[in-house]
Every structure is written in C-alpha cells, then in structure tokens.
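Quick one - inputs below.
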Amino acid sequence: MGKTYEFFRSLKERVYGFFRGHFGGPPTERLESRVIATPEPQAAEGVPAQRQVPRVVSTKPRVTIGVDFGTYSTKVLVHWGDEELDKAKLVRLAEPTQGYPSFVLPSDVRISGGRLYFGREAWSRETGDIYHGLKINLINCAAPLEVTGGNRQASQVPPEALVTAYFSWVLGLIRNQLDQTFGDRAYRPYFNFAAPMNHIEDEKRKQRYLRVVTVAWNSVFREGNPLAHQGSDAGVLDAIDLQLKAVAVPGIQERFFEVLPENLAPLVSLAQQPKMKRGMYLVVDMGAGTTELSINKFDSGKKGTPILTYWDKSVLLGARCYVNPNDVNPTIEKLLKESIYTWGKGFDKVKGNFGETQEWRNLNILLAGGGTQHPGVRPAFLRNAGQIFIPWAGDGKAEVETYQPEGIDYSGIDRDYFRRHSFLLAVAHGLTIDRQRWPQFVRPFEIKPAEPTPEPPKGYNWQDDPGS
Amino acid sequence: MAIENGPLFGNGDAVVLRSTLDLGQVIAEPKLDGGEYWYEVRFTKKVVWVPEEDIEAPSRDFESVDLLAQAGRWGRFRAFRTALAIERIRNTNRNTVYSFNAQRILFEPYQYKPLLKLLDSADRRLLIADEVGLGKTIEAGLVLAELEARQPLDKVLVVCPSRLRQKWQVEMEGKFGRDFKIYSSPELREYLTHAAKYPEDARLRAIVSMHALRIESLRQEFEVRVPSLDLVIVDEAHHGRNPGTLTHALLEDVGRLGQAVLFLTATPLHLGTDDLFSLLHALRPVEFREADVLAKTLADHQGIFEAARLTRSERPDLLSQCKKILTDLYQTGPRRQSPDPLALQIIEELSAGSPQSRRAWVDLERRILALHPLSSVITRTRKREVQETAPIRKAQVQLCKWTEEEDLAYQQLVGVVGSHGWARQSLSLGQIQRARQAASSIHGTILHRTAIRTEDDEADEYTDIPPSEAPTAPGSPGTALPPLPVRDSKFECLMQILKVVWDNDPRAKVLVFTYFVGTVKYLARRLTESGFRSLSISGEIPSDPRHPERDERGRRIKRFRDDPTVVALVSTEVGSEGLDFEFCQHVVNYDLPWNPMVVEQRIGRIDRYGQKAKSIYIHNLVVEDTVEQRILLRLYQRIGIFERSIGDLEAILGETVRELQRDFLSGVLTPEEAERRVEQAAKAIENRRIEFEKLEQHAAELFGHEEFIRDEIKRVQRLGRYLTGGSIRSLLDTYFQSFHPDVRIWEEDTPGVFALRMTGGLAHDVRLALAPGQFCALPPDGSVLRFTTDGTIAYGDEEITLLNASHPLVQAAVGSLEATMTSPGALIGQATIVLDRNQDQSQFSGLYYVIVFAHQVTGIRARREIEAIVWSASGNRLLDSESAEHLLHLAVNKGEEWIHESPAPAVPSRVWEWMLSAALHSNKSLRERERLENEATYARRIAALDDEHHHVVSQIGSRRQTALERGRGPEIIRLFDAQIARAESRHKQRCSELEKSKAVTTELTSPIAACAIEVRQLAGEKDRR
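Output:
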C-alpha cells in the first residue's frame, strides 16, 4: 500500500513541485499561493513524457439513458455527472395510466382510424387495433402485420417497424426532457438498451435490436425529428420499414448506443448498491413476457465488484401467464424449475472443486421484476430454497429477497409509492451505468450461447395479450 | 472532440478529472468506444474508466487554490468539507471543541463548562465543584476526550474512593470508549517496575483507590519511575482537604505529577476558606501558597463579580460604575503596586466608550471575570442554574392495614410481643432487621426466608446498618416460620395503585423499590402472575457491564427499557445504583428505608436529566400504625423529601439522621417519645437547610455567574466549532471513494444512523491506525458496521458504533487522505445551501466566496485558529467574522453539491486581493491582542516563580540557620547549601523555559480550503430532495 501512495505522491510532487520551484519559498506573511508568472509545463523526471495537448474546452455533460423495454411497460432512467455523485434520475414521460405505476409507459401501439398512438394514448383509446407484447414479437420475428393507414392501401409491416416507431416516439420524449434540462444539444447523450440474451450475447438477436435502435436514434438525435408522434399517419410504418432495410449499423466504436444483455443489467444495478454483500446470488428477473435468470458470485476487487456469472439464461415466461388463474401455479412451478435448472447448471461447473462449493452454502436469491411480485412466488421460493439450493444437510442457508434498486432520484413521486414499485427499475438502473464502467464479468468457464428462446405459445396473437 | 484527430492522452499522461479536480494518471492505452475515447485512469487507489471529455491535462491553474478560484475551477464540495475536517483533526485548533457531541452521552451544554475553562487556562489545572448529580464524571471524561483528541495522552490516572472505582471504569468505557484498568497497590508497583524498564511501553490508563495511593512509598516510587502523568483526575477530592493527612499529601503529590489535573468535589466550598485553600494549594502550589494571602486576595477582588454583573446587563450607563470598581482596585487601591496589564487595558477601553455588539459585551464580561484569581481554577455549576424545567414531584402515601392473621405472623417472625411492629422491649439488631423485612413483606419474608440480609452491603455510603452488624443467622430467637397468611394486604394496595397507573397508560413503566431481596423476588413473581410482566434486579443478579454476555443485570434493564410488554421493574438499591430510568414516570417505595439519602437516591433514578415528563409520581406504601408510618413517614413528609430534592443530603441530614437512627434502634423510646424525637429532628434539619442556603448564597459570590461561558457554549454550537457529523461522513466518503471503492455508506431508517459493510482491506487499514494500546472491535469481513456521529444517538443504543475524531476508522481516513491534500484541487469546492426561510433567517440568499485560513500562534498559549474570510458576491462586501463562521457552519452541515449544470462564477482577482487583505488584517489584530495577553500572563508567571523561589530559599535558609544554631556538623550545612543551589538552578531553568514563550508570533497559513457557496431560501418548502 505504502509504495503505491509514495509513487503517487511523488508524481504529484514532481508535477506541482516544478511550478513551486520556480518561485522560491513562501514569502513571510504572504500567502504561499501567489503566482507571478506561468511556466510552460514540462515532463517530470521518471514519469512518461506528457505530450503537448490542446486544452479540452467542452463541458457538455455526458447523459446516459437507460431504457428497459418490457413486454408490457417501458421504464426510463437517465444519469449524468459522474458515478460517484449523481443518482440515476427517474424520467416521467407520461401521465399515470390505469393499471400501470405512474412512472412507466405502457409498451403499446394502437392503430386507430389509420393513425398511430403510443403508450397511454394507445392504452386508453378504445377503437382500432392495439398491439401488446411488442418485445416478444421482436425477439421472435413474428409474422408481418397488415396495416391500413389513412387513404393508403393495406400493406404488410414487420413488427420491427412498429417497435421502431414506438422507440422513436419514446426517444423523442426523452430528448424533449433533456433539452429542457440542459438546453438544446448541450449534452452528450448515450443510449443503453437491453435485449433478452445471456452474457455471451446472441449476435443475431442483437443485430435485429441494433437496426431498430439505429433508425430510432438517428431520427431523434441526428435529424432531430422523431419518426412518429401521437396521431401520425400509420403510413409512416412503410417508410420506417424501408429505413430498417437500408440502415447500416455503426460499429461499436462509433455508435452512441448499445444493446446489452438483459440478464446482466440487474446485476450491474445490484453491484452499485451500498448494502450489497459479497457472495452467491441467484437473480430471477421475471418481467411480463420474459424471465432472466442467472447464478453469480459477487466478489470484491480494486476495480469495483467483479461478477462471476456461472450460468444465465432468458426464458419466455412472464407475468402475462398469470392472467388465467389456472395457469398461476404451473407458472410459478415452471419459474422454480427454471431457477433450479440455472442453479444446477452453474453448480455443475464447481461441484468437482470442494473449495469452490463452500461459497455456495450461503445463497442469496433476489427476485426482481413485476412477475415475481405475485403473492405466490416469494412463498414458493421460501418454501423450497433451503432444500433445493442448499443440498448440504443443516449447513448453510438461502435468503430470499425482493430486489429494489436504491440510489434513484425520484423527485416528485411519493416515497412510499416509489418504494412499492421500485422493483420494476432493476434493468433500467443497470443500463444507466456506462457500459465501460460495468463491473468486470469474469468468464472462468466456457458458457454455451444462449439457448434459443422458445417459440411463442401456439395461437399467440398481438391482440390476444391483455396487457398491463 | 472529433475522434478523427486521435486520442488526446496517452499511457502515462497526468490528467485531471474535470468534475472533481482529482489528479490521476492514464495507465493503459486509450480505447475508442461508443463514439469517444475512453481512458483507464488511476486516481489514488481507485482505477476507473473515463471518457475523454471528462478529463483534461493539468494546467497552470492547478498550481494553487487562488488560481483555481480565479479561473472558476471549483471542484466538489466534498473536497472542501474533507479538507476542513482534516485540518480540524490533524491540527488542533483552539476554536474547535473536539469532544462536542462526540461522546456517548446526552448533550448537556453546562457539562462543557469545565472543558472550556480548562482549554482557556494556561496551566490546565481545575477544581470542578459542581453540585451533586450534575455529572462530574462526564465532565472529567469530556476533558479526557478533548485532550486526547488534541495530543496523545500516554498516562492517565484516576484516583477515587474504592467504591467508585468500578463506576469510573464502566463510565469511561461505556460513555467515552476508554479502556481503564483498576489497579491495586501491588499491581501498581508491578506497573511502575515495568514502566521504569520499558518506558516506551508504559501507557497507563489506571483507576486507583485513594486508599492505595495513601501509601507514601508507592507515591515516591511513582515520582521516581513515572515522573510525569498527562492527566490526573481526583474524584471526591474534598477527602484531602485537611492539611497534614495522608490524603492531602496524596493530592499534593499527584497534583505535582500531572501535566493536566482535575480535582472533583461535590462538597460545597463554603466550609471556610481554609478548606478551599488546601485544595487550591494542592492544585496550584505556586499560585496559592498562603491561606491568609488567598483570603486577602479574594477580599480584594470581591468587586470583580460586581463589575462583571454590571456589564452583563449591557447598559452603557452602568459602565462608569464598572470602571470605578476596576480603577479603585488596580489604580488607586490594593493592587496598584502590581497592576494587571489586562485590567489597565479594560479600564482604558471603558474610558473610550461602550461595546458595540452583543459579542463585545460578552467578551468584556469574560475579560473582567478573568481578572479574578479563582476564575481559571474553579468551576461550579448549580442545579438551579441548569435545571430550568425540572419535573414536578407528586407524592402520595397509600396506607395499608394488616389483617389480624398478618399481624400475628409478623410477631412470630420477629419474635416479639406487640402489634404492628411496636415492640414492648428493646430489640436486638437481628430482630430489628427481621422486623424491617417483615414490615416490607410478610409473604416475601416467609417464602424467601433465607434471603434475610441487607441488600445494601455493597452500597456503603447509603447503608443504615453496617454490614458487620447485619444478622447472619436468619432463624434466631427460636421461632418457627408462621403459616403464610391468606391475604397480602400490602400487595393488594400496590395493585390498586398500579391498576390506576396502567388504566391511564397501559405502557407506563413503573419502578418498584424495596430494601430486601426476598421482597424483590416475591413482588416480581406476583406482578407477573397478575398479568403485568415484571423483571427484577438485585445484588444477586450478576452484573458485568464490560462483558455483555455475563451482564444479566444489564440485559434485564435493557429489556425493561426497550420491551413494551415489560411494565415493571422491581429492584433493590444495589441493583440499580448509578442507573438512569428517565423514561419512567412512576416510582413505588414498597418499603421506606431508614436513611433518607436512600429515598432521595430512589427518586433520583427518574428525577434526572432526560426526564421529559412534566410530573413524576412517587407512591409510598406504608402499613398503618407501624414504626414506618409514625416515625419514618412522618419525618420524611416533614422535611419534604418526596416533593423536592434536598440538595446535598449528606451535609444537611447526615448527623441528625444518624442520631435519630441510634435512638430508635436502641428500642428504649416509647412511641410518644419517638414522635417527639421526629419533630425535633425535622426542626433541626430545617434549620440546617436554611443555614446551608445562606452559605450557598455566599458561595455564589465566590464563583461569579460566568454567564459568558454559557454564551460561549451556545456559540460553539451555533457556529459549528466542533467536528460535525457531516464533516466526518464527508471525510469517510472521500476516503472510501479514493482508497476503498468497494465500501459505501448508506443511511439506515433511524435518522442519524448510518452503515457500511466492512472489508478485509478496510479492517487492515483501521488496525494500522490504532494508537499503541488502543483496541477497536470491528465486525468481521462482509458484516455491517452501524455507526453514528451523534453522541446522543449513540447514548441510546450501545450497539451503534460512535465515530468521533479519535476513532481509528476516522484516524485511518485522515492518515490516508492527508497525502492527497497536497493538490490544490483537493481543497476547493462549490456548494449550494438550501434553507427554509421559515426556519433560518440568519443568512441571506446569494453567492458567497469562502477562503479558510489558519493562524498559527506561538507564545504561552500556543495554538492554531481557523478563520473563514467570506465575500458576499451579491452584497459586494466582506462578512463580519461571526457571520462568516456561521455561513461556514451552515455549509458544512447543510451544504450540498452545487446543483447547477454550469459551475459557479470565478472569483474576480480584485475580490481575491481584498479577501487576502482581510486575512492579513485579522492576523495582525490577533497578534496585537495576543502580545498583550501573553505579556500579562508572562508577568504573572514570572512573579509567581520568583515568589515561590524566594519562599523556598528562605525556608531552606531558616532551616540552615536553625541547624547552625544547634551546632550541627558541616555536612548538614553543606546539604542545605546544596538544596539552595538546586533550587536556584531549578528556578533558572523554569525562568528560561518561560522566557522562550515570551515572544509571540502569529503566522498566517496558505488557504486550507476555498469554496463558492450559493445560499437559496425556499419559503415554507420542504427539502429539495
């Protein structure tokens, strides 16, 4: 420890000492800090030479936007400043909508009278066709829709176009808010988006998401004009479709947005929590349409909290399965089975190593996302956790907790109300952390690419899904 | 920045993080990612990835704080706050009270009075003569904590009566986190041998009984082997007030050994000037050498208090009288031969005009009082001065009537004939004891027969029957146990009282006192059986506050306090000695002790500081027509012991009660005679009380009111002249972010309580920061450490760690961060203070620039003083020093990071120059003031040294003369000559040491920290966040 300090001190002393050396010792009864002339900076001895560089004058803050595009709802958090000080700020993009917490947008699009409506408008209007479950259709490349708009003829529109229009509308709302806060373009926006995939990343799925995001991003932050507004002619979908086909996704080095694994985002959020303790975590993030599961070890290190993800997966299982009361118990049973499976796959990797298995004796099970809030889920885990996840008789324990991210600025929202619903924000919170600052995800073992997400249930239809 | 131009920085470049002005170094090749270049940068111990636009090359602005401020390069407010905290912790500042609100005690402003006096005095010797019950131990503990925060205290010795040793040990550990050891005389000798052999390993935290230190050889050994102690505290110092006694010699010896010395006494010092003199002589032998000189000096200075009183009214028309008093004393009166330069200066100032501000009036009063010879050596606080809202005592007596069956059982138990405890013959001590126990509870006596013994054996000062006389054979005058009476009339009476209490408030906590263990056990069981959960404590229940796992008594008390289902605690005196039950409103005296001091002690458990209720209730249970009713109850009611505190009971009641007790126990008094004796005793007590009140009035004249100290304490609080919780948390935040990025602080649900999760690395650093001999219990790796920085919160919950300046965690933070303070960027910040206009109207909205400097003063009172120079950008003026200090305090406590997206405007260079000039001007004024005070103190000291020297030499000379006259041999005469030579040499050495501090210098440091502060006021709005 001492050596590092000494080195660092000597570096600073050398840099500043040079300046001080120019002016002699401190004058008596005068402040030491007076300066008469400005010397040219020079490289200090023993330190790599510092090149002459122009002074950076830009002071635009970097704003990282995290969007959790869920099956039923979209949650947005933004973060600016730097990681040590500022909280992620909750962005309220719409008025409260019945059936949704006040700070989320329904992930819905409605075409009514040949016009497009999004979010609350889409949810609350009664006429026309409503499209729920955009996310599921996006990941499954669902069949094109036949859309009739205004005076035009009916045409086939792929779900990507509908999702792009929705994104563009959401990004437009976000930009309006940021412009109000910072002034037009007086900030550096960066956009993080999550797709249901494990930490190895499904390249095909990622590309599909990236195309959608690129078109939406370009329209809002490059051209300054969202592709669609409330009440836009549905014919815009054709144009979007054309853009999607023609768009070239910029390389990771150039683009100001990224699609990240939805499995990892809650883990990133968790790693930011002051109360987080090191140890084994089984994270079960059940949204409305998909569930992300992972078994991880949170460690500590000089660069923050390295996370060792033994196994993670994304499955098509969500709160929408609770709609039919007869499906509740089978759904919870399936969730439990998936959790056991995930745990088992992870444990397979260490079971041969006695030392490694010791850490698995204390397991933290974190339940995140709206789907885990069903009154049957937590008791099911509580009942089974000790026996299933801790197969060491009488030795070790499993704790079940609902994960609610802290460190979010929710100004303007009642504290208790926010606390009751903050479990929804695990993914969005993780996405507000710059990807470059994400914890180090250690990959000690080769993990197979994500298992293909199952086909949508037979007969699944856009309109069948009840939403909310 | 266009990425086509390539990265601006390379591996190894020094860079500055724009938001915090932290200096770092790029440690890897840049990476193009997400449309920007990203750099891996090491800041102190932390390595982070930062985008290019967030960093810059260190420019010339980073050379000094003033360049940064004038360039408008403000860093984080956290940096400013941290720099200030480090300055306060590392450099002991005169205007920072380190122990303030930082110990595990309830905050009572008056308890800081001795501390402030001691800090202000030149030689750190003080007699604390507060009235009983005001917490002298706490005051001494605060002095200890304060001195230790300012400099390492290697050797601390507490001398007290044997019975108080454990109390000192527990209080020092529990309230101040100091691990003291009780030493017997052999252990002390062992330590001294060790200390002589290994002086570097001679740390001492000792509690020694007066009895042990009375051994002269031990004290001599002490003097030879450990010639200097950093702090000596002598409790109950009045035991040594008689010159010629061993205890007095003890006081003189330990007084000589100590660098700082505290004598504590509760006995009022109006017992005559001789007693006062002998204590003062032991404390400051040079200054108080002759009793008659002291008496004359006190008489001369009597007018000082009057002069101070005249200034207290702040009426300019009274100043001429004030001036006359001082002139009469110092220019034309008894002190004209050697007038005090400070007095002359005050007279001059009074001629010039009256003070212009409240502060100046208070300062004038302080300076006038400082002229009194006792002002810096004695402090006394009286209850009436501090207890403004004392609860009203409401007493009620419940008379119970025994059934015949109970009366018979009583007679059989005691072995006498005569109903209701009126014996027809003289009783033996054993019979008296049994009679008392049976009167307490017949059922308790029969059921717990073997428990007949006094519980008060341990509490020697309140025992009404000495332990040696307590009956040892429970069963004597040969009586079999009577059958258990069917009814228990006394318990039924108790239940009637308690039902009324609990009907009104089902959660009311009731403290039931009885004298006997048997009654305790019986009552606790009966109450619980009746549906009221009760606990019991007595001397039989093991108590070991230093080892919680063995401290059953402590556990029960905690349960009684915290568990709402437990509504009663049945206790003996011993079981609850020294404990606070300020959360109770009801005390039940199930039996009446024969010593009124015990009654007062019982009531004192709830009638104490922290009692929030307006009224407290004292319920007394007395069996009708018994000795208790006709004698004790009558006496107690007559002297009003239940309704009011009798003050110094021992002095007022002591002898009278002892005589009364002797007469009763003799058994020769008839009931009528006994009643007459009660009446006589009550009258005698009343007369003594009146006499005492008069003496107390006289004593007030001896000490003066010292209102200015109260004002000073308020100023410490208002101006934040202490290490606030915000400062400590900010320090820790910075420390963790720089050195332990995986540790973060969060706030618990309880306001003021915080937590962090320990890591192995942090624990290692904390252990490295431990002072020699210091111990710090840390939770294991991965566990949560709950902490607070507020002493009052810590007082209520022993499981919360109290972090103050001397805590190793804070010391570790300071030790590590000090190295980073060399960068000007680490000293400058910008803050926003949002004030609620309805709550705080003291500060106007606007932008302020703050620079904090320190004045380094040398001389007799060498010290460092922090000063903030504040420029109001909105008002275009400098703030006066008081307002500046207040703004700084507000910033430290209520300041938040700058809330605007654009930084605060730069300080115009013209303004910066003005602020510097103001700092220099202030430094110059300080030097002038300090020179004058130093000169006066020097003159006093040198005169005292000369006086003492002449006195010593003349004493040796007279002994030499006697020896010559008696025709002693030349070797004896040579011995005296050598003594004179030694005295001469010692005198020269002391004079030369004093000479070194004659010259005063005041140096102004470079800025310690600087900040731009925006004050916003929100009318009626709640906190922004």
